[in-house]
Write a structure and sequence with these properties.
The complex is a heterodimer of chains A (239) and B (189). Chain A is an alpha+beta fold. Chain A has eight helices and seven strands; from the N terminus they run αβαααββββαββααα. The chains are: A alpha+beta (239), B alpha+beta (189).
Chain lengths: 239, 189
């Protein structure tokens, strides 16, 4: 019985994805890595992130639906005729948003991608509005790992990659501007932080304008070859 | 039948999405006006107030992608121009809504390290935004010399040869000078 329903939901979900891909041009596959990227890590949020979202979903559902059904029961007791008349409406309001929200959770997990290359991190998320940001490691100022108690229970954390430049700050202390990349719900946050920091430190500039640092040396070194040295020695001997 | 028609359809798609060199872009694609029109129709009663500024924005919007950076200008009464060099770009955001995906366009927002929270430049109405994104990515901060092999070695070898030539000329002059000094010394004896 449960297997049958599982299969049915899987089929429905597959059909939904087909509609999204065919009609709404939602990309199913991972975003392409930039050309000449070298070593590429394609990551998704941890599966525990999906469980974490579902837990929050059930919690919110319990609170909201108890409220709606409680109100409806109150009306039903006060006036059974009106109560029966608005029954479909009340139950519809209680159940339909739940189904939509539950599907949206899965879609959110499915459409979130983190691509880490040797010089940038590319993050893509969204179903209706697809946002893809490419943040270069060259200007990374700090890497922050945030974990709440519930997230700790599920073994996930959020990794914020912050680049230079200011911006406003949202309610939970998360920057709302584009000067950061958020890698949400990753299972191996420490390893990821080390990876990003290592890539950021590979760049020898301090993070703002001094890129000439690693442009100048190869040019100067290449300019003086053995042929030049030989000629310089000849000049010395002539004097 | 089905199998035969599929490759044909793909070819049509391919020819529609031929990568365009971003340096040739000067104006947004006309599809942007259609996007503005539909977007402002969705606002309902506010339609006339929304569409008029957008129409003038579309009409006056100009782009220029040169070797050093991007230039963008728009506005009829209040003009605005933005100059931005590629080497200062630190984040590139590509945002696509449903309408934009249907029309094959996207908003490519560029951010530098300036303090504003909103992107410094939003490039709208470009067909094939992925090519533009990769074009910018190849030139933005952190792009190393070995990422652009065409530029670096060509720049190196002529300058190296020039140094060598210069040194050789100096050597020859010094040699000539030494000969003359030697001849003068012999003449004095």
């Amino acid at each position: 019985m449960t297997q049958g329903t599982q299969q049915a939901t899987a089929w429905i979900y597959k059909g939904l994805w087909k509609i999204l891909v065919d009609l709404f041009n939602v990309p199913r596959e991972a975003p392409t890595a930039p050309p000449g990227a070298g070593q590429v890590h394609a990551l998704k949020p941890d599966l525990a992130f999906l469980r974490y979202l579902k837990f929050k979903f059930w919690l919110a559902l319990a609170v909201i639906d108890v409220l709606i059904i409680g109100l409806w029961l109150a009306v039903l007791i006060a006036d059974p005729m009106i109560g029966l008349a608005i029954a479909p409406l009340a139950w519809g309001i209680a159940i339909i948003p739940d189904i939509l929200a539950y599907v949206a959770l899965h879609l959110r997990w499915d459409t979130t991608w983190y691509i880490i290359t040797d010089r940038s991190v590319r993050i893509r998320r969204g179903v209706w509005l697809i946002r893809e940001s490419t943040v270069t490691f060259e200007n990374v100022q700090n890497v922050e790992v945030r974990q709440g108690p519930l997230q700790r229970h599920y073994g996930i954390a959020n990794v914020h990659v912050q680049t230079a430049g200011g911006g406003s700050v949202g309610p939970q202390g998360t920057p709302t501007s584009g000067h950061h990349g958020l890698l949400e719900g990753v299972g191996n946050a420490q390893a990821l932080r080390e990876l990003v920091l290592a890539r950021a430190q590979r760049s020898r500039s301090a993070g703002l304008g001094d890129e000439r640092l690693h442009v100048a040396p190869p040019v100067g070194a290449a300019a003086l070859g053995p042929a030049h040295l030989a000629v310089l020695r000849q000049i010395r001997d002539l004097l | 039948m089905l199998q035969r028609s599929e490759p044909g359809a793909e070819e049509v798609n391919m020819s529609e999405h031929t990568p365009r060199d971003p340096r040739t872009i000067e104006r947004p694609d006309p599809v942007l006006m259609k996007y503005y029109l539909i977007g402002s129709l969705l606002t309902g009663p506010a339609f006339p107030f929304v569409i008029i500024p957008l129409y003038f924005r579309y009409k006056t919007l100009r782009y220029r992608f040169d070797d050093e950076g991007v230039w963008m200008a728009w506005g009829l009464i209040f003009r605005r121009e933005i100059n931005l060099s590629y080497r200062r770009i630190q984040d590139i955001h590509v945002t696509r809504g449903i309408l934009q995906r249907w029309m094959g366009i996207a908003t490519v927002s560029i951010q530098t390290a300036a303090g504003s929270a909103t992107p410094e430049m939003s490039i709208e109405g470009i067909l094939d935004p992925d090519t533009l994104r990769d074009f910018l990515y190849a030139r933005m901060r952190g792009a190393r010399l070995d990422d652009a092999p065409s530029a670096a070695p060509e720049g190196d070898t002529p300058s190296g040869d020039e140094t060598l030539q210069l040194l050789e000329q100096i050597r020859d002059r010094v040699a000539g000078l030494a000969d003359r000094v030697r001849a003068l010394e012999e003449a004095r004896r």
